[in-house]
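User: Okay, second chain of the day. Same drill as before: sequence in, structure tokens out.
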Amino acid sequence: PAGPVAAMYAGLQELGVANGEDLKETLTNCTEPLKAIEQFQTENGVLLPSLQSALPFLDLHGTPRLEFHQSVFDELREKLLERVSAIALEGKVEERYKKLEDLLEKSFSLVKMPSIQPVVMCVMKHLPKVPEKKLKLVMADKDLYKACAVEVKRQIWQDNQALFGDEVSPLLKQYILEKENVLFSSDISVLHNFFSPSPKTRRQGEVVQKLTQMIGKNVKLYDMVLQFLRTLFLRTRNIHYCTLRAELLMSLHDLEISEICTVDPCHKFTWCLDACIREKFVDNKRARELQGFLDGVKKGQEQVLGDLSMILCDPFAINTLALSTIRHLQDLVGQDTLPRESPDMLLLLRMLSLGQGAWDMIDSQVFKEPKMEVELITRFLPMLMSFVVDDQTFNVDQKLPSEEKGPIPYPSTIPEAFTKFLQENRIACEIGLYYILHITKQRNKNAFLRLLPALVETFSDLAFGDIFLHLLTGNLTLLGEEFALEEFCTSLFDNFFLTACSKKENVHRHVLRLLLHLHHKVAPAKLESLQKALEPTKQ
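Assistant: Same drill. Structure tokens below.
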């Protein structure tokens, strides 16, 4: 019989063991079928003299022979599986592997027999190097490839980058989708946002765990995954690939896989940065440590800067560096100190520009730190500090008894240079956006409305990027009461969001997220005109 039944006996003939075909032949060519069956049973049954008298006893109980043989078979298979796992751990290394190789040689012809397959797979799983010929046979057969353990697949993958790529690719797609779902999620809150989960929690995610398992301790596979991530980052400019680069290394770090961690030159830097991301702040001690790593890049090893820049381009790293920069700025105002006099501030800027320069560096393959623009430190940051001072003076003025000339109005203009910096300088733009998030979180409506016009045109449209809009919509929930005011809505919607809605679908989606959350606070007439403006186009 062909098909599934034939598969049950696959490979028995080569071993000289009788199978269904042999029985069929015997019965076709004999004169006394019952005698022939009895003989076949005697020749191929369990060869234990004491068993012969016991078997009729089972017949009396109506237990079919198949059931008996099946249970003996299952017992023996369990014992054999245990034994294989034991052999893999005992005796001298060469000897144990020699035993397993012999066993594989004997059993491999039965690999397609469903009942024996687990044993063959178990033997291969425990062999650090399965013979090339056997790997090729497994690889060529879809079902065998699917059935074999990840330990065997690793041996196949390490010489078949394309096949490994096919396995990894859907996981990377899933990872990016998961990130985008969080950014566009309809839950808007200041407390739970994209950056809320701790690094350790993020590394428990399905994709990171699966990739970690696929790599095991195999440096070659780890390098392949990093190569995939670099290529995809270059192709798409999607910075979530940088997050995965860091998460993967730290996931292997959690499992103490020194075979990989010790050869990844970014390991200690990433580990230190990971601690900063957990605290959402770079403290002095860690700042010195991170600076030590950057200063320690030796001549001839500059290529490591490409990897470090990718680690620093991870949005979670940028978020931590930017938040720390804003905190330092406020401290400097209190200390009457200029940014150029603060080594910590200069290091934060150095790391931000290394991270922001990741794509260019990997693309051009020119591995040197980007030059820091002096004006960023001498002009832009002091300008942000002057905004902090404006707020403080205004607050003091409000508390003073008013003279005849009435209360002093809040400064409404912004220096032209501020707008120019946001348009032309990537680092300035990133820090400027985080400053705006900071004042929104403080419910500082005056400062928010003053600086908002500068966001309409920013460096490569960063103000209309998903991460910034995700955070901004969250922080705006704190200004919920202002949405009833015409002036506030006009500034926010007409003069900012709606300028980009028709061109950028993502902005459209973020505005809808915000309104879904706050529509009941908006004046009815305004809400109506917004609904008209936000109706999707025919396409």
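The two ends are 59 Å apart (CA to CA).

User: Thanks, on to the next one.
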